[in-house]
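Entry:
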Amino acid sequence: CARRGGRERGRKQGRGARHPPAPPRVAMSHVSTALQLMAQALGSLGAAAQEALAVVPERTGLPLLALPLAALAVYLLVAWLTAERIPELDVPMTQLEAAVSLPPPTKEERFQFRGRMPTNIIPCFDPSTLRTLGEVEVTSPKEVAAKVAKARVAQEEWQRSSFGQRRKFLKILLRYILDHQDDICRVSARDSGKPMVDANFGEVLVTCEKITWLLNEGERWLQPEARSKSGMMFYKKARVEYVPVGVMGAIVSWNYPFHNVFNPLLANIFAGNALVVKVGEYTAWSGSGYYARIIEKALAAAGAPADLVQIVPGYAETAKALINEVDKLVFVGSSPVGKLVMKQAAETLTPVVLELGGKDPFIVLQDAELAQVVPTAMRGAFQSSGQNCAGAERFFIHKSICDEFTKQVLAVTKTLRQGPPLDSVIDCGAMCMPNAAKSVQALIDDAVAKGAKVLIGGHLSDKEGQFYPPTIIIGITSDMKIAQEEVFGPVMAISTFETEDELVQMVNNCPYALGSNIFSGNQGKLRELSKRIQAGMAALNDFACTYMCQSLPFGGVKDSGFDRFAGIEGLRGCCHPKAVVEDAYPWLMKTYIPPPLQYPMGKNSFSFVKGLVRLFYEPGLLGRVKAVFGILTSMQK
């Protein structure tokens, strides 16, 4: 019975998939145990029902409820017994990964950055304490080619998997992520320097949202889609089929080491692809360690090929080799590096998706509610120390409320706590990249030299570790570097405006156009202003909320890149769209070449084609009738 039930479930799973996986074998001991549990549960429910009915006075007629109560009990029991059992993963962790807190590093344990990274290994360290976490071996170009070849073999098998098996993989991951939020966030905090709360927002929450959307809607958007056909093709059926691209490559950034790996992983595995990921070199410890082991265990538990996902840590040479080998590439990183990726991809005509830098505007109109705006602005500027591709980098505040806005954000900023994220509760963590703080300082110095004023912060930190203090700077103008270049640090740069035309000119006078955020008490004004802002995304009366609607695409325009990941467009972007046309009624109508058009063609062939064109494209009925006579005449010549 258990085996037959497994087959039935297998047939029902994955509508449209070619070869559902074989049902798992069920050990007889497990079946026996399940039957014993069922018998015990039914006995307990029966006894409970008898006790309940015994205390009900007969004159009330309530014993008549015995049948529906029993039916409900049976239903609940059957639902419990037949519920899908999601395997629990046992993912080993190292001592450094599992440690909730660590003492300050000794001199021998402290990382020393000497200006250049070694070429054959990646030194890993905690940016908030500079504690050395270990080393990760760089993947050579030859090893990249070998890993892609393994992934390609695995993908040939996986593309035939059912959507049911793919959903199982996602459910296994979701179960593990929900149960191990502390571990995932702690490892991210140790590797990237962000607070635990920011890690949960940027690593766990958005990953769970993506999984849930794929489980609910993913199969729907990958099913063949019927399309309209022209009048001449009235006897045909037209559709688009979404065919997995094969091996997808991903070069991802370091700012969210968990989600930046799992984001392309989830969509591509669900679409039927293999994935080869070059993790960010500044977070290779987590990306090629604990997070890679989660993927390995989840693939095994779902019955997927072990080589379906490959991790290739490394530097530029590793990235070049990956671009040359894969069928399509997603790049998440800076605009200058994105141009290099595109140049390399041109040599092999590898299609690329570029999600590049951003300087998202945070616009506050005069009728906005500051009680909502101020806490949101603080999150937009200082979450993960400003190291967000869709972070708020340019604050445009209406002149009439700018003083009050500045007063309120300054008061909150003075209370922010900064330090190692795992030692105590903090608000701002560290800068992940070495020398990143110096880059931020250069932008601040340039702005001050051109007339801007620092209200708080604005100087290199004297803390041990890679920190830059939360900074508010006012009087920003478009000629300052900080208005044009990506900061990627904990800086709130404030400009003022008086008219909407002035605002639009200031906002659009920037090479980046990823996201945008606008606040106003007038919903109609929000919509109209949003249409004038150059950006790939718009959050109205909120900040960066489009990413929490996983049905929406993510990406920008101008120097922020092109194409999209996430949403329907991103999921279908994991596939080649294949146009298919077939006979709608093969038993009734097929395409035969008319005699006038068969080789060798006669003198009447051109007249025949002209008649066909008029028959199907003349707007009036009379013209089409004339066309019929013309066709008949040409066939008689």
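Residues 230 and 601 are 26 Å apart (CA to CA).
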